[in-house]
Amino acid sequence: MRALVLLGIVGFLAQLVDGSLGMAYGVTSTTLLLAIGTNPAAASATVHLSEIGTTLASGVSHWRFGNVDWKVVRRIALPGAVGAFAGATFLSWLSTEAAEPVMAGILLALGVYILVRFTLWGTPRGNLGKPLRKRFLAPLGLVAGFVDSTGGGGWGPVGTPALLASGRIEPRKVVGSIDTSEFVIALAASLGFLIGLGSENIDFAWVGVLLLGGLVAAPIAAWLVRHVPPRVLGSLVGGVIVLTNVRTILRSDWVAAPELAQNLAYLFIALVWAAAVAFSVRAHLAQRRLDAERPAAGSREAGGSDESEPVPS
């Protein structure tokens, strides 16, 4: 019972982050399931089955708040579904011993990317309003879908930063469009896992609890996306993913690092993580001050110009 309650809390927090940041539900939930010894393919299958409900609820919530660009959803969802089905089939074929460090490595890479991407660069806004073309969205969806299934998460970590980096649509619409299209990816991945694994290898009680937590968080996250700074949230989430998956890799049979080396690695990561979060907070506050000063400076310039010029007779 305690494990189910904890999973419900994880589902709530993971969806809260995912709906606000456009990523990390699958990565966060799968990381936890791996940490407690779940079969990698079963962990990814559990998460994707729960995502069918959470992404549907999240998509509806984002739609109601006006956070969805339907052209982007249409162009990225189908290639993403193809990649997700292929990735699920591939992961189901791997043995548990081979899959665990492989999945942890993928999750670690995604965690590092999230941490570095949001800490150093924030969310770019150039080229706003320019169209996103199919020749960009289709390959992006295919790769993101494959990574999502094999890594237990990755649709958001691959798709969201790529769309943000383009600077062509508003950050809130990037988050809403990625979350909405993920419903199709979750369906395709779940189908691939059910074919590859069979339903007997999936704990549907865990699926239900993760789903329940995510459903509660979905509307809150759709509202928070307008208020929570993505830069800070990205740094926080990236650090959690990096720390947890480094732990999995160091304890795996592939590495089997001694306890002292593990503890030193955890300490180093914790220090880097704390510095990254502090940097993101300072950068966010500096940007807020800059944004606040711009209109004030414009008003002063306009006022000074009016006073300095002679009034025509």
Percent helix range: over 70%
| H/E series | HHHHHHHHHHH
The first-to-last residue Cα distance is 84 Å
Number of strands: 0
- The dominant shape is globular
User: What number is the mean pLDDT?
Assistant: 76
What share of residues are in beta strands? under 5%
Taking pLDDT < 50 over at least 5 consecutive residues as the criterion, the unreliable ranges are: 305-313
Biggest sheet architecture: none
Query: Roughly how many Å is the radius of gyration?
Result: 21 Å
Count of distinct structural domains = 1
Briefly note the structural class of the backbone: mainly alpha
Number of helices: 11
Subcellular location: Cell membrane; Membrane
Protein name: Probable membrane transporter protein
Membrane topology: Multi-pass membrane protein
Keywords: Cell membrane, Membrane, Transmembrane, Transmembrane helix
Give a brief description.
It is found in: Cell membrane; Membrane. The protein is mainly α.
Please outline the helices and strands.
Blueprint: H1 2-21, H2 25-35, H3 40-64, H4 70-93, H5 96-121, H6 134-151, H7 155-166, H8 171-197, H9 204-224, H10 230-250, H11 259-308
Helix pairs in contact: 1-2, 1-8, 1-9, 2-3, 2-10, 3-8, 3-9, 4-6, 4-8, 5-10, 5-11, 6-7, 7-8, 10-11
